[in-house]
Design a protein that fits this description.
Blueprint (H helix, E strand, L loop, with lengths): L1 H48 L3 H4 L6 E6 L4 H17 L4 E6 L6 H6 L7 E5 L5 E6 L4 H9 L1 H13 L20
Parallel strand pairs: 1-2
Antiparallel strand pairs: 1-3, 3-4
Amino acid sequence: MQSKGGENLLNANLKAIIVLLITVVVISLVLFSNLFFQSTYLLKSFGESSIDPEIAFKNNKPTFLEFYAEWCEVCKEMAPKISALKEEYERDINFVFLNVDNQKWDNYIRKLEVNGIPQVNLFDKKGKLISTFIGKQEEIKIRNSIDQLDREAESQERFLNAEFSVIKENENNKVNPRAHG
């Protein structure tokens, strides 16, 4: 009889532990659901709040253009950082978000040669491509590039209009431009 009582007590303890674990998991999911689903929600909201690219390239403001996908883990990871940048700069810069899964954007995907996501392209006021970032990036790197948009556009114009120096050919070490040194 004592062994049946001991088994019943053990089974009761085991059931209590299982119920407790399930309760902790459910409560954790409820409390932390914002963390788990916030990035996916942000990505969806990016697409909904995005400026149409045709308008963005014609309104005389620099443009931040990101190609993303809702299933992309790196896109989800970067979403809170991009959201913070958008909040900070959206008065001065167009923010355009194009989902690569939407065939409507195929023209832009081909034109900008998207071969990895997330891909961020920064354009100056005139619609000239200034910077491209592919894959996971640090917020500070993108922020610095956004801050440099106007200055970089001016320096590129000066560079393109300047005369190039003559490059002397080195007969001893000819290198193909596509070689790696």
